[in-house]
Write a structure and sequence with these properties.
With about 150 residues, this protein is mostly helical. Helices cover about 85% and strands about 0% of the residues.
Length: about 150
């Protein structure tokens, strides 16, 4: 029986490697998104803590004006960071979608070649089976017909 050889095996390996690269790129984008989300939560916690500190500082009694002004400046810095993080997350979200689409396309290309390989393998099996049956028929025919004595 002849061994099956898929003529596009190299192309299939290249497409699989490209698909794996797309998966890695998408995973990296998800990691970046997670980091940005974590940083956003940290900034939000700092803002909450800062508001609580300002409320305490402004409570009845001696008011520490310098501390309130410093807190307000820090709050502006935190809000600026918060807006920058939101813009970055929006950009990363778009990048994730772009990378996801690239992965879907790569996966489709790999599946197409895999289906082609499966069809060719099945055809090869059928051809081999026909050859084997033909050989068996020839052997049976030779045994059934008495050979002439020379």
């Amino acid at each position: 029986m002849a061994k099956f050889q898929f003529r596009m095996a190299t192309l299939l390996r290249l497409r699989e490697a490209a698909r794996d690269q797309r998966r890695a790129e998408l995973a990296e984008a998800y990691r970046v998104e997670a980091l940005l989300h974590t940083r956003q939560q940290q900034v939000q916690q700092e803002l909450t803590w800062l508001r609580e500190q300002c409320r305490r500082t402004a409570s009845p009694g001696v008011v520490q004006v310098d501390r309130l002004i410093e807190s307000q400046r820090y709050e502006v810095v935190l809000r600026t960071q918060q807006k920058a993080l939101e813009r970055q997350r929006a950009a990363v979200t778009e990048e994730i979608e772009r990378r996801r689409q690239a992965l879907v396309e790569s996966d489709r290309e790999v599946r197409t070649l895999e289906k082609l390989r499966e069809r060719q393998l099945e055809k090869h099996r059928q051809d081999e089976e026909r050859r084997a049956i033909k050989q068996l028929d020839e052997i049976a025919q030779r045994r059934a017909v008495p050979q002439e004595v020379v």
